[in-house]
Amino acid sequence: MKPSPDNDASIAQLADLFHLLGDPTRLRIVLSCLAGPIAVGDIAAGLQLSSSLVSHHLRLLRAARIVKAERQGKQVFYSTADAHISGVLTDMLEHIAEPTNGIDP
After folding, report:
1. Of 8, 10, 30, 87, which sees the most CB atoms within 10 A?
2. How far apart are CA 79 and CA 86, in angstroms?
3. What does the H/E/C string look like for 40-72?
4. By the 8 A CB rule, do 78 and 33 touch?
């Protein structure tokens, strides 16, 4: 079922989702999860952030269903929640990489 753009609840949820992704640190964390499952420590090292900060952001992203967690032994691995999230981010990255083709800002 496709959500209606006239539904106030849907609009509020979408705004919250974009608000979460509007934070550069959280966006970098989600982009780290695009390639597949990755451990908190690996995300932190790759982004030069503390593991506790990454964990805090992942908790918010997980609550919003942007990322999902999978425990393997003592470690937790994170990946994007589904193809919708991956697709939106991939499409937007492609969009910003396109030349402007003379379109005025």
Report:
1. 30
2. 9
3. HHHHHHHHCCCHHHHHHHHHHHHHCCCEEEEEE
4. yes
Give the CA-trace dihedral at 4, 7, 12, 17, to 10 degrees. Answer: -10
3-class state of residue 11 by DSSP: helix
Residue 100 has pLDDT above 90, yes or no: no
Amino acid at 16: D
Q: Is 91 left (phi over 0), alpha (psi -120 to 50) or beta?
A: alpha
Which distant-in-sequence residues (6+ apart) come within 8 Å of 53 by Cβ?
Answer: 25, 44
Q: What is the pLDDT of residues 42-57, one digit of tens each?
A: 999 999 999 999 999 9
The burial of 9, by beta-carbon neighbours within 10 Å (0-12 exposed, 13-18 middle, 19 or more buried), is given as exposed
pLDDT at 102: 62
